[in-house]
Amino acid sequence: MTFAIPYRQRLPLAIAALGFLFLGVFLLYPLFNVFSASLLDPDGERLTLANYTKMLGRPFYRTAILNTLGIGLAATVITTALAVPFAFALARLPVPAKAAILALAALPLVLPSFVSAYAIVLLLGRSGIVTQWLQSWGVGFGSIYGAGGIVLVYTLTLYPYVLLPTIAAFKAVDVSMEEAAQGLGSSPRRTVWTVTLPIVLPAVLAGALLVFIETLENFGVPFVLAEDMPIFAVEAFKLFIGETAPNPASAGVLGVLLILMTALVLLVQRRFLSARRFATNARQAPPILTVGRGLQAASAIYCWAIVILALVPFFAIVVLSFLEFRGPVLHANFSPANFAGLFDRSLRPLANTLIFATLAAACVTLVGVPIGYVVTRFRSGVATLLDVTATLPFAVAGTVLAIGFIVSFNSGMLVLTGGPLIMVLAYTVRKVPFAVRSASAIVHQIDASLEEASISLGRSPLQTFLRIVVPLMLGGILSGVVLTWVTVASELSATVVLYSGPWRTMTVVMFQALEGSGAGIATAAASTLIVVTLLPIILLYRLVRRYELSML
Amino acid sequence: MAGIVISGVRRTFGTVRAVDGVDLTVGDGEFFTLLGPSGCGKTTLLRMIAGFCELDSGEIRFGTERIDRLPAHLRDIGMVFQNYAVFPNLTVAGNVAYGLKARKVAASEIAGRVEEALALVQLTGYGGRWPHQLSGGQLQRVAIARALVIRPQVLLFDEPLSNLDARLRVSMRSEIRELQKSLGITAIYVTHDQEEAMSVSDRIALMNAGRLEQVGVPVDIYRHPVSRFAAEFMGTTNLFAARALGRADGGLVSLRPEALRFAADAPAGWPVLSGSVVRVELLGPIARLDVRLGDGTILKAALLDAPEYQVQAGATVRLAYDPSRLTVLP
Q1: Whole domain around residue B318: which residue ranges?
Q2: Does one domain contain both B180 and B307?
Q3: How confident is the model over A239-282, as pLDDT tens digits?
Q4: What is the pTM of this model?
Q5: CATH code for the domain of B59
Q6: Which top CATH class is A10-29+331-552?
Q7: Could A455 and B98 be called an inter-chain contact, meaning their C-beta atoms sit closer than 8 Å?
Q8: Residue A331 has what pLDDT?
Q9: Rounded CA Rg of chain A
Q10: pLDDT value at position A278?
């Protein structure tokens, strides 16, 4: 007698099984190897905590922990302090050109943050353009390197993480709550503080936690700006790849600590935030408040200042890439020489970037969309476990995952190091949580009875998924594909660990130019990356617009 | 086409016995309704027949063929959903043709059958429209056409009218009934609305807490409820301890409000009750009275409107009831 699985559960179980297989081999197994590397003695035989005591015994790495947490905290606080008033202005105040502000404010989410960091160096660094110009006037300012510069770049590139959910939350506030407060005698100002802000607080905190996690995992920004200051993700990279002999045990320790920190933050979020969703059933967005001209002008200036400041570094890089560098020194002649220098050697890195991003976007969609469907439609222990596993990569820094990949696929049954596939797989694993989240949000909006109707009309669950669910998800899947594509194209932290020989990407070219003194090449690579990320986004805006029009 | 035999079907969700041992036989071509309050298990039972819910035990047959282990898409069922479930990415014709294509019906035949099905639900000429261009009533017609066109063995309706407005509900339910009768397809219809159930059904199974409370012809359940639940769910009623009406048997008796008349109009021999009117509702065709009897119980009466009645609250009235319409409940 065989154990019969009800037919209805076969498709979700099959998807779950494939999902677990993929995540098991390419996520859990590498992570397990990072853990075991950190826990084994040098002979690799006995379990020991010696690696941890050794690393944590060194002041250098203790400082790295404090630096990383301190910078993360500072960036989170400042970002939140800037983004909440911004969100309030966009949601509730009469600011002109809101659509334009919103579109521009979302851009830093997809533009590579290390490019922004590099632009800050070129502008405000020791021999930076602005620095020298100010010096010629006899004005000096403190160093941009170290914590200050890193926090500045994090603030400018990560504020949309707080801004976007907070705008949504402000717009979801049921205006009758505010009216109730005012009916009870509360002044408008007091109402904002005592009613509106507490309602949006969970959304603000959720965004702030995302910022914090991003700062913990970020590799590129501290790599460019930290100089001698030890930062976690950078030190893990140096221990594993650096000039000294590779040290998987020590790198593993840093990796595990980093995972534990992010996992802790995520747990805190699940514990304390998920229960505190103040769902208010706003039938329509609350009205725009009437305010005086002074406040109106001030809020418009405030919004535009943040948006423009965040985009200036990227704009500067594009301009600088068309100027001539001799060594690190800049000359004010417009010329395409930097691009000639970049592409004369080889178009291969650009081609690699485009191909890897395309392959990874396809893989992420194939893995993430079915998982997102299963975790939303089928409530069971298996689905919950799959959901948690698929969210796990979010807590794993790219550097750490990449180290796990190298340790796991360097030998044995599956050898991937030295090839392109290892990079595509690492990108796929890193982006799966985003694909699962967005697919799950779309599936939530599709009525389950549509699927039952299709099944009762004679289509199997698999055919129903392909013929009804996928077409209905198409708009959302498409924007997910573009977002994955764009973020993979500018991925740095896993790439610099995993690339080899002919499989350099644009980010690697830029990274190597940074390490050398090829400022011209670096700016050209950076502005190529900017174009590569912006083009699909512009296309997406048009596609989404057309899609929305067709649904009217 | 075939009858449906349901035997010993059970299903628990956690600690809730959603369906708790149901045995039913639905005749070939019968319009059979599962009626009950929300949470009584009627929808779970329907979804078991459709194949969207597994059975813990028991079996379901269409004719002689056992279908409860069959995948839902092979059961040959036409199902109509509460929220229409019309595919928004297909035209009306595309929706109706969906099941035919799944059955690999020749393309040449599909167009004709789609037109025919649309004509049945009075949507001739709507094939090229998109779902978002249709009203709720039209969407439900599309859903019905889509379910009929595949000529299923069994039609299932899951509260198909509850999203429509009251007037449309009344006209749609008689249309559904006529369609089903003219095609002769066995139908199972789920609703919580007893008036709707009485209007469309050949027979009704009244469900309560996962069990069948009473199965029968609508008017029988109404007139001869077997339990207090059945008496109360099928319409307004007066429940008395049997002794209060001077009867020897114990238990409760049920007396429908419309079995009462003013004593002056009643045939001789009807028992008379008198009391004071506490409330009057003139609804047009009938007047509803609440009358407090001598022992304090409230008696509800429904009387056909007549111009000579000038009853007001506080007045003392004498009402008589038809003794043959008194139902003794166990």
Answers
A1: 240-329
A2: no
A3: 887 655 667 788 888 889 888 888 888 887 777 666 555 555 55
A4: 0.85
A5: 3.40.50.300
A6: mainly alpha
A7: no
A8: 67
A9: 25
A10: 57
The ipTM (two decimal places) reads: 0.88
Q: Cα–Cα distance between B114 and B137 in angstroms, integer?
A: 19
Q: Quick check: A461 contacting B, CB < 8 Å?
A: yes
B89 and B9 within one domain? yes
The contacts found for B295-302 with CB under 8 angstroms, 24 or more apart, are: B295/B244, B297/B240, B297/B244, B299/B238, B299/B260, B299/B273, B299/B275, B300/B236, B300/B237, B300/B238, B300/B257, B301/B257, B301/B260, B302/B236, B302/B256, B302/B257, B302/B258, B302/B260
The mean-pLDDT minimum among A336-345, B13-22, B219-228, B229-238 falls in A336-345
- Which is nearest to A92 in space by CA: A175, A34, A160, A186? A175
Q: Report the residue of chain B nearest A6, measured CA to CA.
A: B54
Tell whether B72 is within 8 A of chain A (Cβ): yes
Q: Do A7 and B81 touch (CB under 8 A)?
A: no
* Shared-domain flag, residues B248 and B311: yes
DSSP classification of residue A154: H
Of A30-34, A194-198, A528-532, B197-201, least confident by mean pLDDT is A194-198
In chain A, what are the domain boundaries?
10-29+331-552
CB distance B146–A457 less than 8 Å? yes
A8 and B50 within 8 Å at the Cβ level: the answer is no
Nearest CB partner across the interface for A455, out of B73, B132, B147: B73
| Average pLDDT value for residue range B17-23 | 94
- Overall domain count for chain B: 2
CB B201 within 8 A of CB B184: no
Shared domain for B210 and B253, answered yes or no, is no
Residue B78 contacts A where some CB pair is shorter than 8 Å: yes
Please judge whether A468 and B79 are an interchain contact, meaning their C-beta atoms are less than 8 angstroms apart.
no
Q: Provide the pLDDT for residue B49.
A: 95
User: In the prediction, which pLDDT does B248 show?
Assistant: 67
Residue A281 has what pLDDT?
56
Residue A328 in contact with partner chain B when CB distance is under 8 A: no
